[in-house]
């Protein structure tokens, strides 16, 4: 994800500010599937500490979502955590999926 942040790997960016980046998933599991990441690398949600104020990145973009600018369908958020949580990229990221009825596990 660091390469997406520094633009050395292309991505379809939907939103960006000084704390976070929102971009489409390269292998979408639903009609709507994008990722929200903090710009500062934080390996995983279970290792977040008081120094990790970037975790508040969700609030940075929630106003955009409430206004319907990033999606117009109901979605669910999902955070994988660690090996047993099926996390494959160790940079904290929130998946947002929607656009169809989702089962469990999502995808």
Helix and strand topology:
Blueprint: H1 2-5, E1 13-16, E2 20-24, E3 32-38, H2 57-66, E4 75-78, E5 94-98
Antiparallel strand pairs: 1-2, 2-3, 3-5, 4-5
Written description of the protein model:
This protein is of the alpha+beta class and 107 residues long. It has a single domain (1-98), classed as HIT family, subunit A (2-Layer Sandwich). The protein is 13% helix and 23% strand. It is built from two helices and five strands. The chain has helices spanning 2-5, 57-66; strands spanning 13-16, 20-24, 32-38, 75-78, 94-98. The chain has a five-stranded antiparallel beta sheet, covered by helices on one side. Strand 2 and strand 3 (32-38) form a beta hairpin. The longest helix is centred in the middle third of the chain and has 10 residues, at 57-66. The mean pLDDT is 76. InterPro entries: Histidine_triad_CS, Histidine_triad_HIT, HIT-like, HIT-like_sf.
What share of residues is helical? 10-25%
Which percent band covers the strand fraction? Answer: 15-25%
Unreliably modeled segments: none
Q: What is the CA–CA distance across the termini?
A: 21 Å
What general outline do the C-alpha atoms trace? globular
Per DSSP E runs of 2 or more residues, the count of β-strands stands at 5
Pfam families: HIT (PF01230)
Catalytic activity: adenosine 5'-phosphoramidate + H2O = NH4(+) + AMP
GO molecular function, one term: catalytic activity
Family: Belongs to the HINT family.
